[in-house]
Amino acid sequence: MDAEPLAAAELGRRLAQRFPGHDPEALAQGARAWLPMVQVPPRGVWGRPGLPRQAALASWCAPGDPMAPAELVRRYLAAFGPATVADVQAWCGLTRLAEVLDGMRAGLCTFRDPGGRELFDLPEAPRPPADTPAPARFLYDFDNLLLSHADRSRVVEGADYAAHGFGGGNQEQPSTLLLDGTAAGTWKAVEATATATLTVRGFRPFTPAERADVATEGAALLAFLHPRATPEVVIASPPVRPRAVGGRP
């Protein structure tokens, strides 16, 4: 692993040469479980996937002590603050960070959310007023905004993903449209016969101003994803839930 980054299959093949008679996949899994590793970029390039490759952490990072937990917390808050202790732990997978944040308290700003939970942030971080307009934004299925908080309700509260066919036995993850900073629908972009079509499905009807905002941002997204295709933005009507009849849905 010190020589070069390796994909899991190649790592298994090389380990099997040293330990014949053992399953290469199991050897690779064992090495990845016991050795500190890092997935190196690029996983792929835009529009073309690639195999994930791991390198030994010691060969990738600068020599010396590993990053202190307080520095890890600062980097998180720089991207996602204000945030709770649980938010930081959900992002990095570490536990017992309350004592780390307590030790950093003198150098941080603290707030309370509507539920009374304590929020931490960097003093120099931008915190725009609550009435600052947030334009339409298209998030991918595993966007950090959705994965980096323990409580995602401030973004997805009221989002009826099940009405759009997600959840249950469907393993596909939704790509989310944000309007005014909260989930307002899902989207999917498909290219076919020189035309790129972005289909947006709202959780609720959009106002004329919202439709115009979605169309403008959607066209910009298509120009980025499929620059050679003719763009088409389709804003579909939100799904209609069946009304209850005789006490049953």
Topology of helices and strands:
Layout: H1 8-18, H2 24-34, E1 37-39, E2 54-56, H3 57-60, H4 69-80, H5 85-92, H6 98-104, E3 109-112, E4 118-121, E5 137-139, H7 144-147, H8 153-156, E6 176-179, E7 182-192, E8 195-202, H9 208-225, E9 230-236
Parallel strand pairs: 8-9
Antiparallel strand pairs: 1-2, 3-4, 5-6, 6-7, 7-8
Helix pairs in contact: 1-2
Task: Describe what this molecule looks like in 3D.
- With 249 residues, this protein is of the alpha+beta class.
- The protein has 3 domains: 8-60, no CATH class; 69-121; 137-236, no CATH class.
- It is built from 9 helices and 9 strands.
- It has helices at residues 8-18, 24-34, 57-60, 69-80, 85-92, 98-104, 144-147, 153-156, 208-225; strands at 37-39, 54-56, 109-112, 118-121, 137-139, 176-179, 182-192, 195-202, 230-236.
- The strands form 3 sheets. It has a 5-stranded mixed beta sheet. Strands 1-2 form a two-stranded antiparallel ribbon.
- Strand 8, helix 9 and strand 9 form a beta-alpha-beta unit.
- Helix 1 (8-18) packs across helix 2 (24-34).
- The protein is globular and about 65 Å long.
- The model is unreliable at 244-249 (pLDDT under 50).
Based on secondary structure, the structural category is alpha+beta
Task: Evaluate the radius of gyration.
Answer: 23 Å
Shape: globular
Helix proportion range: 25-40%
**Low-confidence blocks of residues:** 244-249
Amount of beta strand: 15-25%
